[in-house]
Amino acid sequence: MTALAYRAGGNPGPDGTSVVLLHGLGGDASSWREVAPLLGDLGRTYAVDLRGHGDSPRPGDYSAELMRDDVVALLDELALERVVLVGHSLGGLVAYLVALASPERTLALVLEEPPPPVPLNRPDAVRPDEPTPFDWAVVPAIRAQVNHPDPRWWGQLATITVPTLLVAGGPESHVPQHLLAEMAAQFPNGKLSTIPGGHSLHEVYPQEFADSVRRLVGPI
After folding, report:
1. pLDDT digits (tens, 9 = 90+) for 19-60
2. Residue 120 is part of a domain; what is its CATH number?
3. How many CA atoms lie within 13 A of 92 on its CB side?
4. How far apart are CA 69 and CA 98, in angstroms?
């Protein structure tokens, strides 16, 4: 497992709730810089750099499962027992894998534009000539999993019983919106919310995104 870098903020809540924020492919914890302060009154916030990104190590070995294991190890290290998992794109995939691995500590789940766990036909990414601020090796590894996901993942969504919000970006997104709707329907306590803002809508409309998280978590 890889020890992950993270940015902490917010205030510890009386019930020990924490909000863990997982970025998308090629991003880092800074993508949550506007959203995290808006969620700080829900509990301590932790914006994580996944392996190969930001200030976290670049071991060269990448998969969604390894990223899941890294995040679970971080939750153990920080002794976080009541966690709201918020993930964007790749981070959404990692978030629901963490929820599957640690259901006892998952309080709620927010998935923003995750890759639906069904076979897709995304083209191979072309490596840019300029250096990237993340380990490029993560791109082909994750792209292969997005195109050919573990066939068990779709059925396992139905075992995640905590309140789950799937946030879709509308017609400006490259993610098939009908698949996100079908994915949301798999969760026993799943809801779908569309905020027309494209794939990275939390950066375009941080307040609206934070409000949707708060509406999910508030009644818990």
Report:
1. 999 999 999 999 999 999 999 999 999 999 999 999 999 999
2. 3.40.50.1820
3. 24
4. 8
